Amino acid sequence: MPKLVLCSPSTYCRAMVSRIITRWGTPYRPALSGLLWMAVLLGALVWLDGLHDGLFLVPPFAATMTILIYLPAVSIAQPYAIIAGSTSGALIGTALTLVFGFGPEVAMAAALVAVIALPLLRAYHPPGIALAMYPALLHPGIAFAPRVVLPFTLLAVTSATAMSRLVRAWPRYPAAL
User: Fold this and answer.
1) Please, are residues 114 and 88 in contact by the beta-carbon 8 Å criterion?
2) Which residue in 10, 35, 75, 100 has the fewest CB atoms around it within 10 Å?
3) Are 108 and 99 spatial neighbours (Cβ–Cβ below 8 Å)?
4) Please, are residues 77 and 156 in contact by the beta-carbon 8 Å criterion?
5) What's the rounded Cα separation, in Å, for the pair 170 and 69?
6) By the 8 A CB rule, do 37 and 163 touch?
7) Three-state SS across the chain?
8) How far apart are CA 100 and CA 154, in angstroms?
9) CA distance to 36, 55, 139, 158, per residue, from 94 (Å)
10) Which conformational region is residue 53 in: left (phi greater than 0), alpha (psi within -120 to 50 degrees), or beta?
11) Residue of 50 and 154 predicted with greater confidence
12) Number of CB atoms found within 10 A of residue 17's CB
C-alpha cells in the first residue's frame, strides 16, 4: 500500500507537474544538423514561393520534416507513408474542390475522407490529412499534388535518407523492412 505523505498543496502541485512533464512530455532536443536541414528545405520552398508565385511553403511540410527528424522509426515517417499519404491527401482535397467548390465545409469533408482513405491505402501520415484540407482553403490549383506535394515529399525522404548516411548525429532512416 502506498505511503500517504502530507504536504502543502503547492508542493503537491509541483510534484504532479513534474510527473506529468516527465511521463507525457517529449524528450527531444533539436540537433544542429536537423535544424540546418530543415532551414535549407524551408528556404528552398520560400524561394520557390517567390519565384513561381505559387503556394510552396505549406505548413504540413514543416510537420513532415519534424517527424523525420524526431520520429524516424515510426510508421508515419516511412517513405511510403510520407510520399503516398501526403500526395493522396492533397489529391483527395483537390478532387473534392472540383466537385463541391471551396470553403471550410469542403476542407472538413476532405479531412474526414482522408482519415478514412489513407489508412486503407496503408499510407497514414498526419500531415497528409492537413494537406487534404489545403486545396479547399487556399486554392493552390489543380496541379498542387503533383507539382508541389509529390516533389517535396520525394526530396524530404531522399535528403533525410542521405543525411542519415552522411551525418553521424542523424538518426537512421528509413527503418529496416
Assistant:
1) yes
2) 10
3) no
4) no
5) 8
6) yes
7) CCCCCCCCHHHHHHHHHHHHHHHHCCCCCCCHHHHHHHHHHHHHHHHHHHHHCCCCCCHHHHHHHHHHHHCCCCHHHCHHHHHHHHHHHHHHHHHHHHHHCCCHHHHHHHHHHHHHHHHHCCCCCHHHHHHHHHHHHHCCCCCHHHHHHHHHHHHHHHHHHHHHHHCCCCCCCCCCC
8) 30
9) 32, 14, 9, 25
10) left
11) 154
12) 10
CA 87, CA 38: separation in Å to the nearest integer? 20
Q: In one letter, which amino acid is 49? A: D
What the block records as the C-alpha cell of 24 is: 507525457
The tens digit of pLDDT for each residue in 68-122 reads 999 999 999 999 999 999 999 999 999 999 999 999 999 999 999 999 999 999 9
